[in-house]
Amino acid sequence: MKYLDEYRDPVLARRLLAELRTVATSPWAIMEVCGGQTHTLVRQGIDELLPAGIRMIHGPGCPVCVTPLETIDKAVAIAARPDVVFTSYGDMLRVPGTSGDLLGVKARGGDVRVVYTPLDAVRIARENPERQVVFFAVGFETTAPANAMAVLHAAETGLRNFSVLVSHVLVPPAMTAILDAPDNQVQAFLAAGHVCAVMGWTEYEPIAARYRVPIVITGFEPLDLLEGIVLAVRQLETGRATVENQYVRAVRRAGNTAAQDVVRRVFRVTERTWRGIGPIPASGLALTAEFAGFDAESRFATDGVRTAEHPDCIAGRILRGTAVPTDCAAYGTRCTPRTPLGAPMVSAEGTCAAFHHAGRRQSTVEAAR
Amino acid sequence: MCLGIPGRIVAESGDDPVLRMGTVDFDGVRRPVCLAYTQDAQIGDYVIVHVGFAITLVDEAEAAKTLAVLRAIPDALATELGPEAVA
User: Fold this and answer.
1) Which of A349, A308, A302 is nearest to A68 (CA)?
2) B19–A140: do the CB atoms touch at under 8 Å?
3) What global pTM score does this model have?
4) Which of A3, A206, A260, A334 falls between 20 and 30 A from A286, CA-CA?
5) Do the domain assignments include residue B10?
6) Does some domain include residue A166?
7) Domain ranges, residue A93
8) Residue B44 falls inside a structural domain
């Protein structure tokens, strides 16, 4: 397939790996922010082919993983209501809440439906005027334009039985939080290409300058990732710290301003709690006053939700990049993609699931080091 | 949900001026996609699609340039790694 296959060419990948070996003279730790990039790195085994000193730290860029437990519990509570059709992206259904997940609600007869786009949720609301249709609006800057457009479209067409449970998160504040952590090991970032396709990269420039950290906007195919790593290492080796764009075919400096305009109209920036990480100031999106009537949390009282994480899960350390899944005693035994204890084992973008799908065991990871 | 996929616009359904919709071909699989955020995109263009929305146009000239740069990396460096370095 065009724009995929040619960026998976093994011959060119070998050349990039060879180039990396000549460029890298010191050990460096680089974080790929996005779960989609983690998925490619682990599935292709790229992280295990890098020169010995180059270590990839897997970042928190998995929306399924960082959606707060409290929000999952609220989703489960709202979805269980008999008057509600609860619509969600499919990978949210297995995310464990304090007492069960959305799939469990569906199994007990709740009307939980998977949608591929929020516009499908709007259509379901239009076709079922006697039901309350709630859409689980989660994700990073990549899904925000779609979710914002769904709300805007519902408002413009006067849909009264549609609402959204919002738990949007933003990448740059999470990168800052990682850099501010006392045990931070990240020396450079591969920024998420598609987030930057929407937002551009001006907001990353102050981060690169203030923390003296190279930030390379990187695509998702093997060659993109390898080239992104080469560019990051070259900056590290020469003492530079700038925002550089590897993903030129899809990302422009200003981003997609039409999408940004709609996001800014429907959403405002707010503090958001990240599952496993904690509250991060100005790191999320909530509905603006103009669209507050579409807020499912105020439409359906969800007070009294009491949350508790599974005691064996080390998702917080994995999301902060201070542990890998194979460090976890439950990994691959009590915790698998079919029976996840924590969110990173659920989605293909989650680090634990990526490791598990690639068949990683303690021994293979240790051998690769 | 967070994985974007490139596809080629093969049709436009222009009945709604606000919610510009089209059909995008993903290697043989065709899906309706909202083109509201890529107003410049024409039939035949490649776009990257997230949750049913095209979020950016793929710049074909830049794509070709990136590949040309990658292909220009000397192969001599690779010989030391052997042919099985990448699965």
Assistant:
1) A308
2) no
3) 0.91
4) A206
5) yes
6) yes
7) 67-170+255-299
8) yes
